[in-house]
Amino acid sequence: PEPGDRARSGGGGGPPTEEDDAREARDPGTFRGLTDVVLLARSTDTFRRLARDAPRPGEVCVDVGSAHGDATKRMAKAVGSEANVTGLDVSPDFVRLSGAKYPGITFERLDVLEDTAFFADILAKKSPDCVFVDIGGVRAAEALVRALPVIAGGRKANDKPRLIAVKCEALAEKAIETCLKALNGEGPIVRLPESFWLSVCASEVKSARNRSSHKSKSTSQNAAPASLAFA
Length: 231
Hints:
The protein contains 9 helices and 6 strands, in the order αβαβαβαβαβαβααα. It has helices at residues 18-25, 44-53, 70-79, 92-101, 116-126, 140-152, 169-181, 195-222, 226-229, and strands spanning 37-41, 61-64, 85-89, 106-109, 130-133, 163-167. It is globular, with a radius of gyration of 19 Å. The model is unreliable at 1-13, 185-189 and 218-231 (pLDDT under 50).
């Protein structure tokens, strides 16, 4: 995590503070020149800066897991048009709240884990240049494994996103570990091996499911019978 990070769930963090804006004003964008890449953000602060720095003026962006819509708003500011940005979230409450907060941006309810076909249809219609993904909870890894192929493939080569930004601490840490192992004394590598997405993402899905199963089992064993709660 980077200095100034604040632990918040989804959407690239909460509303930017004056301190955030001042820090970002001193940090010019460095990602607009990248093409055909997937960027892994470990922290909220990094994801928030990607939302500001990666999109180019005039581009179209889709924000998956938009939550409060604050990162989505940063994308709109970066591209210069709220009409060019769409936020997607599984929570109808987040969709309602973010829509009220930023009425010029379109927010829609979507579960990318369950509605992959509809998600693919949205991407085909909007043809985004940048897709941002910030999905929290125990389903995050599985959702990413299912969503990334939908985002990156299935359409014409010249119609795929220029850039995909993903906030996932587990995958980011694995990526750092993979890069360090691949060093040959010539500095960090800039591209992960193709096997990374297949092997690491699959193993993270299994780990996430195991964590969820263990938590459910532990909660069940420690919970008092319902009859006692109403005695």
